[in-house]
Predict the structure.
Amino acid sequence: MPGGGVETGETMAQTAVKELREEVGFEILSQPKLLGVYKNNSASKRDHVAVYKAEKWRAVEVFKPNREIAEMGFFALDNLPNTITAGNLNRIREIYFGEPISEYW
């Protein structure tokens, strides 16, 4: 999942929109919906991760591997890559399979 730090003067939602565009070339066409905020103990004592969902979006640039995202793809929920991180897998399980929501990434 694309992501990045919130810059001074930005809201979390603005950062979500910006990072999706910068990292994978997608433009969000609907208001992003905040699904949750998670404490990320592996990054620092203060780091939090906000997860947003966009119902409508479109590709506006051809994806090119970059220093943050090596590759991009769309996957069926029952055929996710084996390289998915635990945090991302936990969010997918919460959002799509109704598993209990954690406060931690």
